[in-house]
Write a structure and sequence with these properties.
The structure is a single chain. The protein has 15 helices and 17 strands. Strands 1, 2, 3, 4, 5, 14, 15, 16 and 17 form a 9-stranded mixed beta sheet that branches. It has an 8-stranded parallel beta sheet with strand order 6-7-8-9-10-11-12-13. Helix 9 links the parallel strand 11 and strand 12 (283-286). The model is unreliable at 48-54 (pLDDT under 50). The radius of gyration is 22 Å and the shape is globular. The protein has 450 residues and is α/β, with parallel strands linked by helices. It binds inosine and zinc ion.
Length: 450
Amino acid sequence: MSILIKNAYIVTMDKDGAGEIPNGFLLIENNLISKIGSIDSIGDISGDNSGDADSISADTVIDAGGAVLMPGLSNTHTHLGMTLLRGYADDMALQSWLETKIWPAEANLTAEDVYYGSLLGCLEMIRSGTTAFCDMYFFMDETAKAVDAAGIRGCLAYGMIEFGDLEKGNKEIAMNEKLVRDWQGKAGGRITTMYGPHAPNTCCQSFIKRVKEAAERDGVGVHIHVLETEAELNYMKENFDMCSVHHLDAVDFWNTSKVPILAAHSVWMSDGDIRLFAEKGVTVSHNPVSNMKLASGIAPIQKMLDAGVKVTLGTDGCASNNNLNMFEEMKTAALLQKVGTMDPTALPAKAVVEMATVNGGRVIDSMTGVLKAGNKADMILVDTSKANATPIFDVYSHLVYSAAASDVKTMIVDGKILMQDYNVLVMDEKEIMKKANECALSLAERAKAK
Ligand SMILES: O=c1[nH]cnc2c1ncn2[C@@H]1O[C@H](CO)[C@@H](O)[C@H]1O
Ligand SMILES: [Zn+2]
């Protein structure tokens, strides 16, 4: 199976390689990129099967017609099953939002709810250019089945909350172990797994240490919320006389020599915390829209980048965003850093695109996030034949400040076309929206009845 994409403005995100290729072609063989380059340099690439030495032939030829071809976006922090809770509880602070609305609703979740919520999430991601995501939630078998069916890439963790209860902790860890056992490397490698201790104020230190040991034993990463709110920082200081980062450093949690650590939010970071993350090689998932909506604060992202921290981008769940739109997330990330530092040069457009592609890709699959020969074929075409794409002086500026998620017209993941010319090929959209809506309404009814 081979696919040739021609006449594309290729944004490779390859620092050591091609950069941008204005009149480019890209050849996919099976699930890998086998050739990428400039059409001008090779002459005819008609894409027919004539066998002409000058022509590259392929089973399928896509004429990009000048659209931007770029790596798919990686959303490194979300809770896909929560897509059903979009708009369920807004305009609240994190702790009361969780305690009075979200957790009571989640207590009524069924496997079917999470399956349709996850499929709906996959559909929204396909339509908005996200080829890969990191998740932390419950009923993860259902999310895994949805990812398998949708054809995208997912790094799945089971969200463990134990509140210092040893027995609950044992059960939670067993659930995550099962997820790793059952799904690591499945769906042709599109599904990977992590361990997901929820946060330093919902899981105790010794439990998180145990989780880290399990992750190292299994060779998978750890995904955790950290320093999302000032309330968490104050709670940790009052109870442990130090912040979450140092509390976990005391058990060597941030050591990434064996497995990667993905720290979502990381809003209330001191300069010392930032240095520690840089030294240890911790990956941060910055979630600006959720942080603004819950009024959690402004993560010091420019400082983190200056210190050498690996920063990626995520939407968080649909109950606190309220969508999975990574284009919106890119623009918000840039704007928030600027106003937060009162410096318009903070977090420039290209750095944001790097966060959403290269950096995010790396934490999910080291062979994604950059378009180059040998990498996995995960990519999108962004339509530039629109008013909001006229003119384009700088492609990164366009992608961050002007492009819309609805400009994504084609998506390929692992060498398979999931959407072509705005047609989603891998699922029945109307049916999924209908089923997800039914599940959401019924879930809200059950939550109300209790
Ligand atoms: O922004 C957030 N901060 C903390 N917890 C969250 C956030 N968004 C969702 N959850 C919660 O995390 C658990 C997933 O394992 C769920 O309970 C979900 O509601
Ligand atoms: Zn979250």
